[in-house]
Design a protein that fits this description.
Blueprint (H helix, E strand, L loop, with lengths): L11 H36 L3 H17 L1 H11 L1 H20 L4 H15 L2 H12 L5 H29 L3 H21 L2
Helix pairs in contact: 1-2, 1-6, 1-7, 1-8, 2-5, 3-4, 4-5, 4-6, 4-8, 6-7, 7-8
Length: about 190
């Protein structure tokens, strides 16, 4: 078999290898999304604010996440799926790191808004990327893999963030998502065309 010309779809084996950075990004987004709920009480206690005030942190995150769906979709059409994934990973990682170092409710609100806006671009871009790069008969399997990773990230976010909040504080829960987003970003830079 001759080498594929540049720009054509890679071999199936290579495509499987290339998927894992996207799955790590999906895991990061799911973990971060579902870590919010178990961390709210710990945030309220640590920052010495009312629980109702601390829930604004989750509201800021979910508001940004929801508001950015349409802009990310339009951007992925213009800039490309992988570019939008990477931008989302950068914003998600930076917001997560800022969340770790936040010492006030106002700072945390801004950091979580940035994180939500960034993480919102990852999963939809991955879904569109699957549709762009895989033959039709391979898409269901890849979508199933992605959904499995999302489910594992969701469960890990709820359980892991709660355990981390009890053991070492709420900051680490946000840091974990940021680390996964950075790993995914670095891997996509190496493996994605």
């Amino acid at each position: 078999m001759s080498a594929q010309p540049k720009g054509l779809l890679p071999t199936r084996r290579m495509e499987r290898v290339r998927r894992w950075p996207a799955w790590v990004g999906v895991f990061a987004a799911a973990f971060d999304n579902f870590a919010m709920t178990p961390l709210v009480r710990a945030i309220a206690t640590d920052l010495k604010v009312e629980l109702a005030e601390a829930t604004a942190v989750a509201t800021a995150y979910y508001l940004a996440y929801g508001l950015m769906q349409v802009p990310w979709g339009m951007a992925s059409e213009r800039l490309g799926r992988v570019t939008v994934m990477r931008i989302g990973m950068v914003a998600g990682a930076l917001g997560s790191i800022a969340s770790v170092f936040s010492t006030s409710l106002d700072g945390l609100l801004v950091a979580r808004f940035i994180t939500g806006a960034g993480m919102a671009g990852i999963v939809p871009s991955v879904i569109a990327w699957i549709g762009d790069v895989l033959p039709e008969n391979e898409r269901p399997g890849a979508a199933m893999e992605m959904n499995s990773v999302y489910a594992i990230g969701s469960a890990s976010g709820v359980l892991g963030a709660g355990v981390m909040a009890d053991a070492v504080g709420w900051h680490l829960g946000f840091g974990v998502a940021g680390v996964f987003a950075l790993v995914s970003l670095l891997a996509t830079t190496r493996l994605f065309a």
